[in-house]
Design brief:
The protein is an alpha+beta fold. The protein has helices spanning 21-35, 43-52; strands at 2-8, 11-18, 54-57, 65-71.
Amino acid sequence: MYYVVDIHNNTLGSMESFDSLEDAMDQVKHLAIEKRNGKDLSDDELDNLESNFEVFDETDSDNIWCIAIGICD
C-alpha cells in the first residue's frame, strides 16, 4: 500500500492510500501542480519525485510544503 501525504508547515494536511506506486506518483504531481496554481513541475522536481518519492517547496519560509509517498506493508 502506498500513502500520499500532504504536509504544510509541519502539519499533516491530508493522506490518501493507493494500490500502485504509479497512481501515488500521479497524485503527488496533481497536488503539487494544484498548489502551484497550474505550474508544472521542473525536471529537478520530477527527478526528486522519482528518486525520493517527494516534491517540496521551501522558497517561502512561512509557507513550506511537501507532498510525499510513504510505503507500508
